[in-house]
UniProtKB/TrEMBL annotation:
Entry-linked PROSITE patterns: SET
Pfam families in alphabetical order: SET
Biological process terms in GO annotation: chromatin remodeling; positive regulation of inflammatory response; positive regulation of transcription by RNA polymerase II
GO MF annotations, alphabetized: histone H3K36 methyltransferase activity; histone H3K4 methyltransferase activity; transcription coactivator activity
Domain of life: Eukaryota
Record-given protein name: SET domain-containing protein
InterPro entries to which the protein is assigned, alphabetical: SET_dom, SET_dom_sf, SETD3_SETD6_MTase, SETD4_SET
Species of the source: Caenorhabditis elegans
Domain named SET: residues: 16-234
Amino acid sequence: MNEFISWCKGRGYQFDGLEITCPPPGNCGNGIYATTGFRTGKAFITLPETDMINAALVVDLPVYRKKLAKIGGEKLKPMEILTMFFAFEDTEHSAWSPYLKVLPKEFNTPAFKGIDYDVNTLPLSIRKYWIDQKKEISEISEKLRRLFPELSHDKILWAWHVVNTRCIFVENEEHDNVDNSDGDTIAVIPYVDMLNHDPEKYQGLALHEKRNGRYVVQAKRQIQEGEQIFVCYGAHDNARLLVEYGFTLPHNLGAKVLIPQEMLLTLAKIAGIQVTREHEMVLEEVGLPSHLYATDEGPSWSLRTNIRVMLLEHWQMANGRWKKIIYSHDPIDDEVDEKIDEKLEIMLKELRNGVAEKAKKMPTDVKWMWEEQVKVCDVALQSFEKKEKLEEKEKLTEEYS
Ligand SMILES: C[S@@+](CC[C@H](N)C(=O)[O-])C[C@H]1O[C@@H](n2cnc3c(N)ncnc32)[C@H](O)[C@@H]1O
């Protein structure tokens, strides 16, 4: 690590008052710790933007310019270029050697460990990501091995993981030799990529200060001496964290249950709502998601609005009249509100039982993903109990006052 720190300092990185370490229990790998306090807004890591490893930087390096010219100048996409870079760089002799030496040798993701989930055993919240990830790895591996037969699948798999677990969103400038048809918004940034993820505690905000030609990480709030400094990789549930990054969090507020429209309609019918084609069309036009999130106090406004749509009478929908009702700022009628609660409670109980039944039947390695979803349903259902208790209390207070 000392060699890496000296290497960073020699390149103009500034990170006074920080230390990279892997304290026990060591389940995060390395992380960045504050050895002094920082006030809100303080930029505690800065580095020259020229050290952001992005596709443009790689294709302009003479060795890669030559390699790409040799294969006929075929333009590659940013993820392919960065994967190629990490797959080719030699740990001992590369100009990035001190950095390459502190990178993980392996990853805990199912893809790296060769676990092949049956898609049908995965909850909806992770299914698409898993399919896309598998496709991306296999396409990149095939393409890079076709262009550079000296690269092995294992080396590419490792390099792809380095990029995927460490890259940051940045808006890169266009480059003639980069295929940016799907965008060019990734960079691996040494030192900054030592920051671990915690969506509740995170204090670090990373940003590219283009006008100052530097990349910085700032304190989002006061940081105390001794704290590990985190950033937020996104509002991911544990299934996503495992598949994308190879770890899970004990109390993850990113947990969610996806309820696509088809499922919403089925649940609504079970709850006795007469859903017509007209309701379906309005639901499509409103376009609000029905998902349940662990962070929500109860079912979200958008889920409640979807139920409200399905409870509209024909005359309330005709000639676009529904817009006035749904988008109105007036408080919802108590009777309608109660009806929404009544139907939602039935629907969510049904959903919860369905998910719990699935959890029982699922293979051990994915059962926990379903159980996490059961907990999200439980939290949503508890909100009805809380509401009922509160209403009872209010009634009693009214009676005795
Ligand atoms: C950008 S790197 C962060 C630095 C990394 N810990 C290292 O040692 O190089 C992302 C990786 O760190 C680990 N990680 C990040 N946040 C974590 C957390 N809260 N708990 C456990 N592992 C975490 C995961 O292995 C993830 O793939």
